[in-house]
Amino acid sequence: MKQSKFISIVITVFAFAAGLSETAVAQNQRVLAEALRITGDKFTVSVRTPKGANVFAVTRPSASVLNAIDSGLTDLFAVARKNRYSRRLNYSDYSVYIGKADRTKDSTGQYSPDIAVGAAQYGGTVYDQGGFIYAAGMVIANDPCSFVIAEHTKDFQRVSNVVRYEGEHLVLYHNDRRRYRETADHSKGGGHPILQ
Ligand SMILES: [Zn+2]
Questions:
Q1: Interval between CA 29 and ligand 1 midpoint (Å)
Q2: Cβ neighbours of residue 94 closer than 8 Å, sequence gap 6 or more
Q3: How far is the CA of 165 from the centre of ligand 1 (A)?
Q4: Residues 102-112: pLDDT tens digits?
Q5: Do 56 and 95 touch, CB atoms closer than 8 A?
Q6: Is the distance from CB of 54 to CB of 48 less than 8 angstroms?
Q7: Single pTM value for the model
Q8: Is 1 exposed, middle or buried (CB count within 10 Å of its CB: 0-12, 13-18, 19+)?
């Protein structure tokens, strides 16, 4: 009797866990399709950072890149807590897609791996390159928290910065919707860091 009860509890817990992971897989498939649409890249590599953030990439990221992602998230969570935000402050809440860089230098010749994305609301602004803009990073889904950055082979501090900056939009989406709306669209002015 005691044993059968235990088994039924185990089965319930297992079914609940399976349901959760199915939802997570479905969400990831949707975000993956969006990442593919935006970058044209196939994200066949799936790894975790040492602190547990999810990383999807075209080629296997170096340890330096993974550590830089963790460092950017650590900074993000610290400044989020300072602003009394508490939601989505776990490394595992975040998925970082690392796409191929569409350029590796900016207009001044500085190392600056960026991705080209459709201009949309940035058309006609200083960012417009003729129907597209170069972006260091871009949010691809608010839930689960997902954004894309470009492959870096050096200047890993820049990776940390981009992770922190894209993460700002996601933290605001989940903690302060009004401030999120005010700061999400850079074509109307304003940049990063948003949170101080
Ligand atoms: Zn931004």
A1: 24
A2: 53, 54, 73, 88, 145, 146, 167, 170
A3: 6
A4: 999 999 999 99
A5: yes
A6: yes
A7: 0.85
A8: exposed
